Amino acid sequence: MADDKKRPGFETLAVHAGAAPDPATGARATPIYQTTAYVFENVEQAASLFNLQSYGYIYSRLTNPTVSVLEERMASLEGGRGAIAVASGHAAQLLAFFAFMEPGDHFVASSKLYGGSITQFGKSFRKFGWEATFADPDDPENFRRALLPRSKAVFVESLANPGGVVSDLEAVAKIAHEAGALLIVDNTLATPYLCRPFEWGADLVVHSTTKFLSGHGNAMGGVVIDSGTVDWAQSGKFKALTEPEPAYHGLRFFETFGDLAFTVHGHAVGLRDLGATLAPLNAFLTITGIETLPLRMERHCANAQAIAQWLERHEAVAWVSYAGLASSPYRALQRKYMPKGAGAVLTFGLKGGFAAGVKLVESVELFSHLANIGDTRSLILHPASTTHRQLSEAQQLAAGAGPDAVRLSVGIESVEDLIADLAQGLAAGA
Amino acid sequence: MNHDTYSDADLRAILKRVRTIAMVGASPHWNRPSYFVMKYLQSKGYRVIPVNPRAKGETILGELCRGDLSEITEPVDMVDIFRRSEKVGPIVDAAIKMGAKVIWMQLGVRDDDAARRAEAAGLTVVMNRCPKIEYSRLSGELGWSGVNTGIISAKRRAL
Q1: Would you call B149 an interface residue with chain A, using a CB distance cutoff of 8 Å?
Q2: Parallel/antiparallel/unpaired status of strands A222-226 and A165-166
């Protein structure tokens, strides 16, 4: 009784996974179930649902049919067991840690994460008694040195912004597991089209779906995906999943739901109590975006590669950080973990410094000056005058956002138009 | 026979032809996994006869709990085993003797020797799976909870 069907390809999963025709109407596109609650069949069925004994919808804070389609699609694309969709990437990180962290617990995170994650982990998580130590990911051994007996997880980005930093996922997974800790990977910039962290030993994957997954700069969202391969009982560290849950009359999630435990817990406890629910309309926009993810990422990466190479030769440019360049120290890791491309976000430095950065962002016509990434449109940002302006110059430099740095999120327009726009913008600042 | 993977078609065929299930290790306590599975299978139209010597004579979800498989007089299509792997052998032998057609061992339960005996006697064996999870996965219900069902189809779903 072997599996008789070959697993469908990534492009097929991107269009179909999770989205069978609507069972009620046959609607082929996924309907937007714009409802807060669902009528029970009878008291007995309601009791079964509240006891988690049967599957069904109760209240859209927990589950919603449109959101479920996005969850299954993301679990499928990442090769995981299940997923929990939430309101934003930050909410995804909160929900992922909430499942197993207790006051006094510790985790180790890359020091080269997106700045918003560093603030969330370093400042707000402390209010829950969750302590983070930051380690430079360029040497995976730094994680081993930072891990403590009470550490429960290591957190990295597969591909980090700014700077095109690629994490050595296989090495970090081994170090985390040897310490009885989970590896959590933020796969936002790479997307599962370029990199699938579960194939390298990650236990949980998180995304801001706001970026390349929804892809059109029109829907906030986040998702946590569980590999389904964690033995939550092995170390005795993950009591929320193995010990009786008082709010469900002593139910033990891992014993009852096996490899579905994290996914069920994420809805029944995580979304129930944190309430960071994804809106059905945003789920619909994200599902629609994901259908073209492979096509868009191909173009995003090709455009970014061409622009990075063009910038590297430009006389006004001091340096370019992009893992797809031969000059990048991350080139070998990029070829191993994301061979189809190095993503669409790159950073470069201007010889003219702060003033040249300001002039460039104000001179471009096609590039939108805003603080986001992963849009069909090309985006430009001068961090030192915007997102990082409250930091000291030393802090800006440590974040890869010094006074001379400009960040691009390269869109899917005609690449010659993008290069022409950058050329005239750089000429204006010369 | 390979017991590491099972095809969707084979699991679907088992769940379609089975009507009466004897559940060895059924618990009378509502927060135990076996109770969840029994209740779910009943809601899908299966008759489930609980077997558990410690709950013998009690009524579980409307069914009289038997102390042993040999106490069941009505025909049983499938024996679903909620016991540790090392306890499985004699249960499988009793299931063969009573004329069951399918042996199903729950998640984490596996006994390859017992499986070979059952298959030699013409029974179908599934190990280390849960019928509730497989039924809900194949019918699409599991996707309602954000789980990857692995089902890709442009047709309306039916088990």
Answers
A1: yes
A2: unpaired
- CB spacing of A260 vs B133 below 8 angstroms: yes
Residues 6 or more apart from A341 whose CB is under 8 A from it?
A194, A297, A298, A300, A301, A302, A304, A305, A324
Where in the sequence is the domain holding A374, given as residue range(s)?
Answer: 293-428
**Domain residue spans of chain B:** 8-145
Task: Check: CB of residue A217 under 8 Å from CB of residue A377.
Answer: yes
ipTM confidence score: 0.86
Residues of chain A found within 8 Å of residue B144, distances taken between Cβ atoms: 55-57, 63, 65, 68
Q: Residue A226: what are its φ and ψ, rounded to 5°?
A: -100, 135
Mean of pLDDT values over A89-108: 97
Q: Specify whether A270 is located in the same domain as A418.
A: no
Res B115: pLDDT: 97
Query: Cβ of B13 under 8 Å from any chain A Cβ?
Result: no
Give the residue from A70, A39, A72 showing the smallest Cα distance to A56. A39
Which residues between 44 and 63 in chain A have a beta carbon less than 8 angstroms from any beta carbon of chain B?
A: 45, 48, 51-57, 63
- Give the CATH number, domain containing residue A334: 3.90.1150.10
Q: What CATH architecture does domain B8-145 belong to?
A: 3-Layer(aba) Sandwich (3.40)
Query: Would you tell me how many other CB atoms lie within 10 Å of the CB of residue A252?
Result: 19
User: A305 and A374 share a domain?
Assistant: yes
Q: What CA–CA distance (Å, rounded) separates A373 from B27?
A: 53
Phi, psi of B43 (to 5 degrees): -70, -20
Say if residue A347 is in the same domain as residue A415.
yes
Specify the CATH number for the domain of residue A197. Answer: 3.40.640.10
Residues of A in contact with B133 (CB under 8 A): 258, 260
Q: What is the DSSP letter of A61?
A: T
Under an 8 A CB cutoff, do B133 and A57 touch? no
Residue A1: predicted pLDDT:
37
Q: If you average pLDDT over residues A179-189, what whole number do you get?
A: 97
